[in-house]
Amino acid sequence: MLAYILRRLLALLPMWLAVSFLTFSIMYLIPGDPLVSILGPSASPEARARMLESMHLNDPFWVRYGKWLSSAAQGDMGDSIFLDRPVTQAMAERFGVTLALGVGALLFALLLGLPAGILSAIRRGRLLDTSVMTTALVGLSTPEFLLGLVLIYVFAVELRWFPVGGYVPLREDFLDGVRHLVMPCFTLGFIWAALVARMSRATMLDVMNTDYIRTARSKGLGEWTVVWKHALRVAASPITTVVGFVIILIVSGAFITEIVFSLPGMGNLIVSSVLKRDYPVVQGAMLFIATGVLLINLLIDLLYAYLDPRIKYD
Amino acid sequence: MKRVALLLTLGLLIGGLGLLAAGQNYGGTLRAAMQTNPPTLDPHQTTTTATQQVACHVFEPLIAFDENYEPQAVLLESWEAAEDGLSYTLVLRDGVKFHNGEPLTAEDVKASLERIIAISPVSGYYDGVGEIQVVDDLTLLVTLEKPMNLVSAMVIQVTWQAIMPKEYAESREELHIPELIGTGPYKLVEWKPDVHVKLERFEDYVSVDTPASGFVGEKIAYFDEVLLLPVKEVGSRIAGLETGEYDYAEALPIETRSTIDANSSLASHIVKPQWALVWELNQNEPPFDNVKVRQALFAALDMEFVVSTVVMNDKDFYLAHPGFRYGPWSSWYTEAGSYNYNQADPVKSQQLLEEAGYNGEDIILLSNRDYYWMYRCTLAAATSLELGGFRVKIEFSDWPSQIGKALTGEGWHINQTGWSPSEEPLRMKGSLQCGAPYAYGYCNAEMDALLDELSKPASFEERKEIFKQVQLLYYEDVPVIYFGDIFGLEATRQELQGYEAWYVAPRFWNVWK
Question: In 3-state terms, what secondary structure has residue B191?
Fold first, then answer.
């Protein structure tokens, strides 16, 4: 197993290099530069030239990539053009917000989606199944920003149960912090709960129709024992794949959710950095996220071996 | 004894309530929902509105506009131009303090002006300034290389002329908190990007002893603290205003005005003017290097239709007027040449195009969806062009991309943009002067001569006569297309008293809850 892990980590290296090249170069493919956002649209050519020089944006592409890559490999992503701090510091300040949002959303997705999908499979064809699947369809069809705005209107403006937006660090005021996170986490989690529900239902239906489940039933085992002790164990692996996929989707969905709810997280940082052409932040953040996704995929693969004894990694 | 204490308490309570009822209240926090983060807080580094919105509370200029757009002294006590127009004597107000407690002196002003000239993106307006000498603690002598109207240069955008202490102004690098020290009614305390910019009342602020008007006059910081919160999603800004989480929200869609007015807790405010709708024409390449084609463009356009469409025909939010750059609210407004405005004559346009030899080449129009008013202006105006015989190809991108492409000067013919208000005609030099970066190839010796005359010291009446000539030449030569002005919408909670929308930045002095 250890050898497998090391081999997989080594295999990540060419992928990581490819991702680093893509993330570095993609920003330069977009027209425009950060100077409009820094100096304003009325800046003189002299002021622009001065700033281009000071930011080394006139250096050849490969020189800039080489310097950036060697620094990034040592954990130094450079300095933000706009935030007056290192990119790593800017990300660290915001990572906690996105992590809280992501964990909360994942909890909603799993706590809503898994039971809903499993119950739907058990009660296939009945009212519960139809209701859950219809709700899941609506959830998957609803853009995050629309759901977020509707929730704000109902729960913040009309009912005044939750704040409109903003973020309170949990370590400063845990209860108020949770209050600020409920709606954004639900917004993000509900949509992916729908995916989890649909996929876990489909998986459970496949498993529930297998011979060994029929055998378990014919032995006189209760339905819930059949489901929890036998069916779920086998369904766990495919469901884990979906959960891994959902984690990645939550990361991308966080961008919009953070903007709607004014959360100062990494998504908000990346969106505003793209619009302003804060190259170092976008490159550093994208590389960080891509690295995270690669590692999550590896962890999911390793989890299979734990969940399913039939799977062995040499 | 107990009875006396009770009576005293009651008396104090009633007195306090009376004071509250009487009017202005000191204290509390104003929470303002802004549409974006500033890219920097250093006012000399940028012209962006988000920075100006902070800077106008923290820094003060030497001269600024009052509500009638007349230049008035802020940090100056007086100014005087020499008879030959080659020098200005500036006398500062005595007793003004910086946020660090140090007095404002002529050395600070010299260093600040030199910093603006050295690094500001719009330092070109100070071309002609020679030496800045300190005569005494409160007096400077600015010598000029040629006669120029220094006051006009200084009031082009008041927040760019921020005066700061010499020790910081001598730096040519970007300044940050705690180096950003001004003389304004609020001081900069903290900036957390995506979270807030925090201002605190400056207790030792020395206000000008004249009634508040525009950016001049008395400024009282009633609030202990002002938080400028970036709330990018407009729905969230409105929702937060409704729930009371925010006291002020900027840049609201004009369609929401009826909703805001229907809510008894809220008050809507119209920002007038806010943006001028403008097309910049690339005269580096055909066909707009030909004046007949530019005149055809002008003839084709239905200005009233375009400007009204941008704001969905809400008459409170637009004015299509023949004044080039200045609407009827401005003392610069003139109707010289107005018979040329709003021709909406596609037949005339087609005739002019034929005379010019236009063969139906694609006219590439750069625009964006980032700013709804630019987007709508493009779409509305493009229909007029098609009717007028132009073959239009619109390229939408985001704002930085659009500007990036426009600055190359190649591969486009029309650049959709907007001009923020400016009550000083010299600001047009950047778009009308031969060789200017945003003139995009426009070059007319007569226009240059007129702009040169405008740069010289003269009375307002004399300058206005020159400006009329500029406008007449604009209609004849069509260096740019100026459609008209649109206004903006802001809103506040009813508890926020004293707020008046005006010009580029919300003013959070002289307001209280």
Answer: strand
| Start-to-end C-alpha separation, chain B | 37
Among the listed residues B148, B158, B202, B150, the one whose alpha carbon sits nearest the alpha carbon of residue B66: B158
- B53 close contact with A: CB closer than 8 A: no
Give pTM, 2 decimals.
0.82
Confidence grade of residue B8 (pLDDT, cut at 50, 70, 90): low
Residues B196 and B231: their CA atoms lie apart, in Å, by: 10
Q: What is the pLDDT of residues A65-98, one digit of tens each?
A: 888 888 888 888 888 887 878 999 999 989 999 9
**From the list A36, A90, A260, which residue is nearest B403 (CB)?**
A36
Q: Position B333: which residue type?
A: Y
Q: What is the pLDDT of residue B19?
A: 46
At residue B232, what is the residue type? Answer: K
User: In angstroms, rounded to a whole number, what is the distance separating the alpha carbons of residues A298 and A5?
Assistant: 8
First to last CA, chain A: 6
- Tell if the CB–CB gap between B404 and A36 is shorter than 8 Å: yes
A33 φ/ψ angles, rounded to the nearest 5 degrees: -150, 175
**What does the DSSP 8-state code read for residue B158?**
G
Burial profile B354-386: b = 16 or more Cβ within 10 angstroms, e = fewer: eebebeeeebbbbbbeeeebbbbbbebbbebbe
Output the pLDDT for position B5: 53
- Token pair of B17 as six digits: 């309530």
Percent helix, strand, coil in chain B (nearest 5)? 35, 25, 40
Neighboring chain A residues of B228 at a CB cutoff of 8 Å:
none
d(CA B428, CA B436): 10
Do the Cβ atoms of A82 and B400 come within 8 Å?
A: no
- Say which DSSP state B410 is in: -
- What mean pLDDT comes out for the span B288-300? 96
Contact between B425 and B482 (Cβ < 8 Å): no
Q: Is A234 on the interface with B (CB under 8 A)?
A: no
Please give the angle made by the CA atoms of A261, A262 and A268, to the nearest 5 degrees. Answer: 110
Nearest by CB to residue B231, choosing from A90, A262, A277, is: A262
Q: Note the pLDDT tens digit of each residue in B340-384.
A: 899 999 999 999 999 999 999 999 999 999 888 999 999 999 999
Q: Is B24 exposed, middle or buried (0-12, 13-18, 19+ CB in 10 A)?
A: middle
Q: Which amino acid is at A153?
A: Y
- Residues A295-299, mean pLDDT to the nearest whole number: 83
Tell me which residues of chain A, numbers 35 to 54, contact chain B at a CB-CB cutoff of 8 Å: 36-48, 50
Q: Give just the sign of the alpha carbon dihedral B90, B93, B97, B102.
A: positive
Interval A234-268: pLDDT, tens: 777 777 777 778 888 887 888 889 989 989 999 88
Beta carbons of B177 and B41 less than 8 angstroms apart: yes
Q: Does pLDDT of B405 surpass 50?
A: yes
Angle between helix A87-122 and helix A174-208 axes, rounded to 10 deg: 40
* Residue B57, C-beta contacts closer than 8 angstroms, at least 6 positions apart: B184, B185, B186, B199, B226, B507, B508, B509
Confidence band for B479, pLDDT divided at 50, 70 and 90: very high
Q: Look at residue B1 in the predicted model and tell me its pLDDT.
A: 55
Query: What pairing do the DSSP bridges indicate for beta strands B362-368 and B391-397?
Result: parallel
User: Where do the DSSP E strands lie in B82-138?
Assistant: 87-92, 129-136
Instruction: Report the alpha-carbon distance of residue B149 to residue A9 in Å, rounded.
Output: 68
Distance between CA atoms of residues A314 and A300, nearest Å? 16
